Amino acid sequence: MKAAYLTKQAGPEGLVFGEVPEPRPGEGEVLVRVCATAVTPTEFDWVPTFKTRTGGPRPFPIVLGHEFSGVVGEVGDAVRGLKVGDAVYGMNDWFTNGAEAESCVAPAAAVAAKPGTLGHTRAAVVPISALTAWQGLFEHCRLKAGERVLVHGGAGGVGVFAVQLARWRGAHVIATTSAHNLNFVCSLGADQAIDYHATPFEQAVRDVDVIFDTVGGETLDRSWSVLKPGGRLVTIAAQSEALTEPRGREAFFIVEPSQEQLAEISSLLDAGFLRAFVEAVFRLDQAPAAYARAKRGGMRGKVILRVENGT
After folding, report:
1. pLDDT tier for residue 108 given thresholds of 50, 70 and 90
2. Counting C-beta atoms within 10 Å of the first and last residue's C-beta, which end of the chain has fewer, N or C?
3. CA triplet 176, 179, 181: central angle to 5 degrees?
4. Which residues of 93-112 are buried (b: 16+ CB within 10 A; e: fewer)?
5. Is the pTM of this model over 0.85?
6. Rounded to whole angstroms, how far apart are CA atoms 184 and 164?
7. Beta carbons within 8 Å of 250's beta carbon, 6+ residues apart
8. What's the start-to-end Cα distance of the chain, in Å?
9. Is there a shared CATH topology between the 2-126+276-306 domain and the 128-251 domain?
10. CA 255 – CA 92 distance, rounded (Å)
């Protein structure tokens, strides 16, 4: 099958386009004919990209991209509720080859029916981002209606879903973003939008119940001061995993796959409570250019790689 892949440990400049062996689904897995997959530029820095679960080196070629939208092409043993030909979206394991290819394998429990109102291109931006926002707000922070929530990076891939889900839950939503996206995040449901270039957020907001941080670094460090007593903070910034400060380390989480949550998110998308945003679309053989665009930032949503299996 055709794929964008790495033959050595490298960044986006090391991606090549060519043929790799097609995977086969095992017990409890499905093979998905990929139509689109979203680009996550930090994936080159993730431990699972180049290491096995036991810490050894992963074999090359390595295919990136761990969220997708496509069609079930094959079903492994003990799979229930999914069949060949179903339009699906979901995630696959961080330690396995991903979806920047014509096919990928994923656990059936990490795959759900694609939202009927979305084409594959827009559906592919949803799984990791929307699940991250859902789990951060509702599982880790237990966000309640009427609470005040601050979302850092409200126009980014995860931020757009965090703003929308917090508003859907009935929270008062504050979002930081660039001046270009102030009106955009308000259109998503933010009650207040702060241009982080012009105004330090701690001068504009205080006593929030929940902070959802997608930025990390200095932004995370400054965030603790605006939490009210008993407030909750989560961060998904990759550098936070290595923090030595206990509260910062404990605030970091990594998204988990969930078929049930993906199904709920599909319902919200189809009902119009959520919208998905694609910044740009590239062909699979343009993967290095897609990563370059994603790395520049300033996006509304995510960058997509389109595979010739569909649109």
Report:
1. very high
2. C
3. 70
4. bbebbbbbbbbbbbbbbbbb
5. yes
6. 12
7. none
8. 18
9. yes
10. 12
Region class of 67: left (phi > 0), else alpha (psi between -120 and 50), else beta: beta
Strands of 156-197 (E only): list them. 172-177, 192-195
Distance, in Å, from the CA atom of 243 to the CA atom of 255, rounded to the nearest integer, reads: 18
> How far is it, in rounded angstroms, from Cα 288 to Cα 64?
12
What's the CA gap between 56 and 37, in Å, rounded?
Answer: 27
Indicate the helix (H) or strand (E) that contains 282. Answer: strand 278-283
Helix (H) or strand (E) holding 30: strand 29-38
Which among 310, 259, 307 has a CA at the least distance from the CA of 82?
259
Fold observed for domain 2-126+276-306: Quinone Oxidoreductase; Chain A, domain 1 (3.90.180)
For residue 195, the cross-strand partners are 177
Domain boundaries, the chain: 2-126+276-306, 128-251
CB 25 within 8 A of CB 105: yes
Amino acid identity at 212: F
Query: Please, are residues 301 and 278 in contact by the beta-carbon 8 Å criterion?
Result: yes
> Is 209 in a helix, a strand, or coil?
strand
The CATH homologous superfamily to which domain 128-251 belongs is Medium-chain alcohol dehydrogenases, catalytic domain (3.90.180.10)
Encoded tokens for 212? 């959802």
Please enumerate in sequence order all residues whose Cβ is within 8 A of that of 46, keeping only pairs 6 or more positions apart, or say none.
94, 238
Instruction: Show the tokens assigned to 279.
Output: 């910044």
Q: What DSSP line would sit under 67-111, residue for residue?
A: EEEEEEEEE-TT--S--TT-EEEEE--TTS--SSBSEEEEEGGGE
